[in-house]
Amino acid sequence: MSESPDVTPPVVPFAAPDVGEAEIDAVVEALRSGWLTTGPRAAAFETEFAEFLRTQAGAHAAGGAEAVVPDEVHAVALNSATAGLHLALEAIGVGPGDEVLVPTWTFTSTAEVVRYLGADPVIVDVTDDLLLDLDAARAALTPRTRAVMPVHLAGLPVDRAGVAALAADAGISVVEDAAHGFPALSSGIPIGLGASEAVVFSFYATKTMTTGEGGMVVTHDADLARRIRTMRLHGISRDVFDRYSTPGAGWAYEIVAPGYKYNLTDPAAAMGRVQLRRAVAMRDRRRAIADRYDEAFADLPVELPPREHREDDLHAWHLYVLRLGEDAPLDREAFVARLGEEGIGASVHFIPLHRHPYWRKTYGLDAAAYPVAERHFPHVVSLPLSSGLTDAQVERVVDVVRRTLGGR
Ligand SMILES: *Cc1c(COP(=O)(O)O)cnc(C)c1O
How many domains does the chain fold into? Predict the structure, then answer.
């Protein structure tokens, strides 16, 4: 047996899950309990999620100022953020003939849920920080516009006050796609609280906290929350857990609408409750990794990810989106391939909606209408960013990126 001189380089997955023994124990406990579907753990997860947001508001209230918390915070757990976006739009009454403003720089979920309801997404350009361009959104308003769906891309908070002003002027609703936005703050207020009709979080496997698959809608509107609770489970007027916990009337329910099957299971909620307790520590770890990348790449031919630009904003750091400069020694495709050869997972977030055949053909979209997205798209690359990365993995990414881009 010959000794290999090469040490296998550590592989750095693009989205390393950060799930430990506590999550595993919680899921096992849920399985042993016999509640395999939506039950007490899902209900507790909702209460604790709302409480977490309130606590964040208190923790970040500026020097002695009152924490800005709406009187009511309703959190409704679902089996995905896509389900949450769908039901939020349904609950505010979006339907055929309506238009909803969506940034081109997002995942297809944001726009597809508008189609579920027979309405039309109006896809608008972004600013240089890859967030919805509020001027472009204003220019796209029509008498049919019913809502706007800003996306906290990568975890960078949108200008929520600007969105709220646009919505108030136009008389439309706001549904925030916060799939990347947990836990983050916009102007000192946690994303999830604030004036928007609904804010939707994702607990997909790669997101900042996970239940494998899952999502949460947060709203200050009790009627909206009630409608979403009804529609997430077949349009039944009371959920399974309530039925079983009401003595004597376990069999009784009413169907009040043709609903959906969007409920979150208890084993998934059990995992979410543990992740929630770790959410601040996980965010701090991701921020530390982003800081390390920024410092290590400052002299390279790249543009670093945009940082918070309003006081009291706080980035969730779901993604680290680097942009290769015109003077980089290789293009994005070659760069991603090179990282792959070195065992480093990289990705692209996102291919703008207007570039996908379905959206382009259905709405006759012309790339010329998206000059900012078109300018940035060829250059963006997402590097590994997860609280599950070790220091050695982070340094491996730093080393390979620096070597590949000609850093000394
Ligand atoms: C992941 C994601 C979604 C969908 O989340 P799911 O929980 O997988 O449905 C929606 N919007 C954006 C921007 C996302 O990245």
Answer: 2
